[in-house]
Amino acid sequence: MSEREDKTTDLTPTDLALDLEGRHSVAETIIGKEEDQKSPLPLTLAPDDPENPRNWTPRKKIMVTFVLCVSVLTLTYSSTAYVASLPALMNRYHISQEVAILGVTLTVLGFAAGPLLWAPASEIYGRRAVYVFTGIFYSIFSWGAAVSNNAASMLIFRFLIGFFGSSTINNVPASLGDYTTPAERGVYSICYALMAFGGPSIGPLISAFIQHDAGFRWNLRVMAIFSTVLSLAVAFVPETHGPTLLKKRVAKEGKAPSPLTLRMIANVFKTALARPIIYLFTEPVVMLVSIYLSVLYGILYGFFEAFTVVYLEIRGFSSTSYGLTYISLGLGFLFACVLLATIGQKLYLKSAEVDAQRGLPTQPEARLALAYYGAILSPISLFIFAWTAPFNHVHWIAPCIAEFLFATSMLLIFTGFVPYLIDCYLQTAASALAAGMASRAVFGGVFPLFSVQMYHKLSVQGASSLLAGIACTLAPIPFVFRAYGSRIRSRSIYAVTT
């Protein structure tokens, strides 16, 4: 036993926290000494501690999950519901289609910028404080976009909506990891995934009817009302971050360290803000997952513009009938959730049992049981879309089936990799997720800017086949983790090894 381990063996979690704070700087205590061979996890509540969120009742976990996940839905819905108002906004503000589309791009780019701040902030100040703070501004800027009188202010507000709203889309998976056990995590993550991807698919569907019957102002107002109601609801969600709860207990016992100085706070944020970027470029697990999910995310958001070429320009659908085609995406996401909750959970528990028989904790790679099938299905669905969508003699149900299959594959992949990152990084999962969210948002924001032009220049067959080819090159990634995941994690200074 090392000298450090010998000194701390008999200490309570509270005393241990104080002991560590006495021997290290605040930044080192919160995020670990990065020069160590293995970066230590932040101190947290013991598994059998009554205050540990993992000991909540199932009813409380379900209620908190519902509120947090629907708050994610408000943001993802708003990101694409805006699309239905593009012609009206172009008319009202006398702007080009490219400028109008920036309302989608800037919101999604806000997804990229926000997590770099809100993820480390949630690991320093707790999840709830960040949700409450960002929720206030998220609601304010949603109303700002609804009442803006010029294109410039509306576009600025759209970016700020994505920036402040991104605290939920990034941190909610980390919150789920705070209060769920590994066996529960996959099921609860399904709800998050459905809201994260269901929002973009139902946004154009619902907003098409709002825009048709009430105009673009009411379309924007509905988004603002939705975001405000859920921001208020999230304010009542209790704290879930174990290290934050432990620090609060220390403070109540009167053993808290002296208040942080501005310089200490600056050092903490300087290091913590760098962590998502460090993870993205130095952690092979985060890098590969981010690349894969980013491309899929970009294709999804590119679809929202490409569908206008297929269904409005080529097939001649009306604006409301065109909106109905998004039902196929929603059904695909829903079907994937059913697969994950049934077959996926059984496969995970089976893998956990096998690992237990080998005397090992459940390996993170057990999360990828259905991601393997999703990786194969993704390019197949894109090829089907490529060679059915632009031909009027092919029934419209064929490309809709392709959309259904793509949505199913995407959710199978996404819902495998998000819990996988949480299992790999645990208490610093928010930073690992922020790295992935930032890269996904960049792709998702940029794709709509050129997707229409790409589908016009390369044709629907050429553009969709190109995307299918890219999906083929990325398909081996989950299989790489299956074969070498444990070895890759063992070489990481941040990932938890088992």
Automatic annotation (TrEMBL):
Residue ranges of domain Major facilitator superfamily (MFS) profile in the record: 64-498
Record keywords: Membrane, Transmembrane, Transmembrane helix
GO cellular component, one term: plasma membrane
Subcellular location, principal: membrane
Coiled-coil residue spans: none
Record flagged with keyword Hydrolase: no
Pfam families xrefs: MFS_1 (PF07690)
Signal peptide: none
Keyword hit for Iron: no
Any GO MF annotation of the entry: transmembrane transporter activity
Region Disordered, residue ranges: 29-54
Xref: InterPro entries: MFS (IPR011701), MFS_dom (IPR020846), MFS_trans_sf (IPR036259)
Compositional bias (Basic and acidic residues): 29-38
Subcellular location: Membrane
Name of the featured protein: Major facilitator superfamily domain-containing protein
Species of origin: Roridomyces roridus
